[in-house]
UniProtKB/TrEMBL annotation:
Organism: Cherax quadricarinatus (Australian red claw crayfish)
Upper classification of the organism: Eukaryota, Metazoa, Ecdysozoa, Arthropoda, Crustacea
Tree of life domain: Eukaryota
Keywords: Membrane, Transmembrane, Transmembrane helix
Gene3D superfamilies assigned to the protein according to its UniProt record, in alphabetical order: 1.10.287.70
Identification of the protein by name: Ionotropic glutamate receptor C-terminal domain-containing protein
SUPFAM superfamilies, A to Z: Periplasmic binding protein-like II
Membrane-spanning segments: 12-39
Length: 156
């Protein structure tokens, strides 16, 4: 830089702007390269109905869990009969067994709670999640008897 400023304050301002420009350029280049090199992995289904239409995919759930009872419910019985019941290896005793089967077979999907997937250090990096929630379940709040918040939540 043959024409750098003579005053100390101007030199500091000049070099700060130079470094900021360099960092912005590096961040832009890194973002561009990462977007161009990463393959966009999209699952071929977003809902249970889409999954049912795909003949090659299978669905696994944990045996004896709330999800098994949920799928045996009247609203999801059709999915249970189409995706889970015909196959002998779809009901597993643990999430680890489901994950192992999903690692071996790329056409195997399993239902796991968000908490299990978030706490799983291996699964968070390897597995893909559906964009939408496949299951919609009701929730409940329990309040102690005589709680001052009970009327507020009953009203809402």
């Amino acid at each position: 830089w043959p024409n750098s400023p003579d005053a100390g304050v101007l030199r500091i301002l000049f070099w700060m702007m130079y470094v900021i420009g360099l960092v912005v350029m590096a961040a832009y280049s890194a973002t561009l390269v990462s977007f161009l090199t990463v393959v966009n992995d999209q699952l071929p289904f977003d809902t249970l109905e889409d999954l049912k239409q795909l003949q090659k995919y299978r669905l696994g759930i944990q045996k004896g869990s709330m999800l098994e009872e949920f799928f045996k419910n009247q609203n999801f019985l059709v999915y249970y009969k189409a995706l889970i019941e015909p196959y002998t290896d779809t009901l597993k005793k643990s999430i680890i067994e489901l994950r192992t089967l999903a690692l071996k077979n790329s056409d195997y999907a399993y239902v796991g709670s968000y908490e299990v997937q978030r706490l799983d250090s291996v699964g968070a990096c390897i597995f893909k999640s559906a964009h939408r929630h496949l299951l919609f379940n009701d929730g409940a709040l329990a309040w102690p008897q005589g709680s001052p918040y009970l009327q507020l939540f009953d009203h809402l």
